[in-house]
Amino acid sequence: MAEVRRMVLVDGSASLYRAFFALPPLSNSRGLPTHAVLGFTTMLLKLLREEEPDALAVAFDGPGPTTRHHEFAEYKAQRPEMPEAMVQQVPYIHRVLEAMRVPVLMLPAEEADDILGAVAVRAAAEGTQVTLVSGDKDLFQLVGERIAVRDTMKERTWGPAEVLARYGISPGQFPDLLALMGDSIDNIPGVPGVGEKTARDLLARFGTLEAVLERAADLSRPRLREALRTQAGQARLSKRLATIRTDLPVPWATADLSRKPPDISALLDLFRELEFSRLVQQFSQASLA
After folding, report:
1. Which of 37, 255, 263, 282 is deepest in the core (most CB within 10 A)?
2. What is the pLDDT of residues 114-153, one digit of tens each?
3. Would you say 3 and 49 are in contact if contact means Cβ atoms under 8 Å apart?
4. What are the start-end ranges of the H helices in 101-151?
5. pLDDT at 82
6. What crossing angle do the helices spanning 12-22 and 90-100 adopt, rounded to 10°?
7. What superfamily does domain 6-166+245-272 belong to in CATH?
């Protein structure tokens, strides 16, 4: 089997939401909403053209409450239900991936972030260059010499230098940053009264959350000292919630995710059903090539 030099791993849930909200509503002649499927498919095809990876996979959150939900019932609790028009399109996203012969990475009660982290770290350790495709800043903690995060919406790629320039910390300190400042998107509480600038300053001075908590008495601001003293347990919980589990046992070897040619016939049938005329034309030409 050919060596996997470049791998692209897509955060499927994040990409689905972005496609749904980024494009104006679109339906086929039977009234089926289709814009999320179109946006997702277009993004995937663009990635393949630009990245030319040897391996590609898409990760989704698995069904059921996760370890984080068991530890903190309010984790992501503020998120609204998936819109019905999006629910209708999810099976078609999976049909696109099946026809494109792109592996779907999903495990019961496990989050896409942890699956992405475990697969990416193992592949990077084997010498593969990995691009994680997501707009989720939580993934910045995985960034390293062989792992980058690409935000396709903002057309920005994050390596260690970009994370340092924006946040003033190394990627490995990202869970500590979120532990202190919290994360409203995932409902991670952090330490009340501590914003991004204070969290950055504390980590620049002390390095880790534990060191910040141990040396809190050295701080000159009484309110900050008191918040760190009384909320130490919540800060540690927040760090556990924010830390991606790169040791998650996953059943996919790097070679299992190697690129395979798409099933052109299945794609054409699906695109005709969805009435994606431009993609029908594009893949009809590919089938004649």
Report:
1. 37
2. 999 999 999 999 999 999 999 989 999 999 999 999 998 8
3. no
4. 112-125
5. 87
6. 120
7. 5'-nuclease (3.40.50.1010)
Residue 242, C-beta contacts closer than 8 angstroms, at least 6 positions apart: 138, 141, 174, 175, 178, 179, 183, 186, 188
For the beta carbon of residue 102, count every other beta carbon within 10 angstroms: 21
Contact call for residues 116 and 9 (beta carbons, < 8 A): yes
CA proximity to 49, closest of 152, 162, 158: 152
168-242 has the same fold as 6-166+245-272: no
Domain ranges (residues) in the chain: 6-166+245-272, 168-242
Residues sharing a CB contact under 8 Å with residue 113, sequence separation 6 or more, in sequence order: 11, 136, 138, 139, 244
Q: Residue written as tokens 């002649």?
A: 29
Which tokens belong to 132?
């994680």
Q: Six-digit token pair at 224?
A: 């900050």
Given a cut of 60, is residue 158 above it in pLDDT?
yes
Using CA of residue 233, residue 236, residue 240, residue 242, what is the dihedral sign? positive
Q: Which amino acid is at 50?
A: E
Just give the CATH number of 168-242.
1.10.150.20
